[in-house]
Amino acid sequence: MPVPGTEILRRIADFAASINGSEKEARARAMDVSNEIEKLLADQSDAFRELAQHYLPRLDDDVESDGWTEMRAVLRDIMLRRDDSRRQLQTRLQTASTQQSSAEMLWKQLSEQFSAVTQKADELTTQLTEKLTTDPDLQRLSREAAEGQARLEQATANLSDVETEAKNKLPPYENSQLFQYLWDSEFDTDRYQRRGMSRRIDRWLSRLIDYPAVAASYRFLTSAPRMMKQVITEQHKTVKARVEDVQARQTAAADALGLPAVQASVSRLNPEVDRAFAAMDSAQKLCTSLQHEQAQLDSPDSIFYRDALKAFQALLQKTERSIVAARAANTPELQDDQVVARLRHIDEVVSQKKSQLDQHYAAAEAAEKRTQRVHDLLSRCRRAQFGDPQRIFEDSYDLNTRLQDLANGVVSGETMYQEMYRIQKIDSPIADQASAAINGPMGQILINTMTQAAGAALGVYAARAGQQHRLPRNWQQ
User: How far is Cα 231 from Cα 221, in angstroms, rounded to an integer?
Assistant: First the structure.
């Protein structure tokens, strides 16, 4: 049974996908082996570093005794750099030590001065206290100032109470028309001027509201706050004068003892002592840091020892394994022989892994080429519209076998394409009728007639072309 073109293209695509999967598997295996090689190379680097540390436990030239004279120049250069760094650090340390000594000396001097003036200030303060305590006039003035201050505070509190009371009690007086009438008339005062009936009425109103008592209360509420403020002002002046007198006497007594000058020295020396201590502390920290750097020059953590190890490790890696093994055999220790044996084993495993890696890469490249050949055939078949629904192929064609031959390079893509082209045809009723007509009894007559017609048409076309391109007779004259 004929096979549709769509089925043919599907089989080709499935085959391409299957061999493409083998390429991916080969590349995945190659990646795994590559990772194993990287780990082995890291182990190899660690082994070389261990061997370098064994031969060079510290930065000196004793490594020559083990036969590694090649390191002489490198180690000499590194040790010269280390010694130069030590010299520079020593110079800086001497400068820092001098600064530390100077800062410490200054701090001690200032501290002694500060302690002395502080003690002197305490002594003078004690003397001043005793002198002020035994001065009767000063004690009297101080007592009067304290009592006046207490009275002033009490008067201020009373003023607040009176102002509050006046604020609460004045509105009834101010809102009473009868009281305001008599108050505005200045009744019951020398300035009252009414006579006759008005005077008798005002007297009657006065008795009615008890004007004398009410006026006295109103007069107190309006005048008391003002009078108390005046009293408080006078008291404040008196208290201030007493306080100033006391302070003047205290200042005079302190000046007589020289206390202000000593206190000024205390205020001046205090920040100077703090600055001197900070400078001394900074110098001490710098000295400690430089001493630590000096100690690190000969430690395994120093940059010079790391540079020496790196150079020695590079030398060991470049040296033939046989030479490394021979020099290890000449030493009494077994550690270097063990490391060399480990390196030899790593070399063997790496060599095996590299062979496997080459095989996997070769398999991946071969699979890639096989996939490409099948993909090229698939693309060409698609361009030729082999997948058209009306295209059919003979089922006798062993497509899978030929695809395998194509992938393995037994047959070329061109050859296989031509094979498939010859076995495909169009599944159409019109095409079947044309084929039957050509293959029938009248087929040969039809072909001859078509050939003669085509030949005559070509002859006429050639004659016309010759007339159009004919040259004139005199074209060479």
Answer: 16
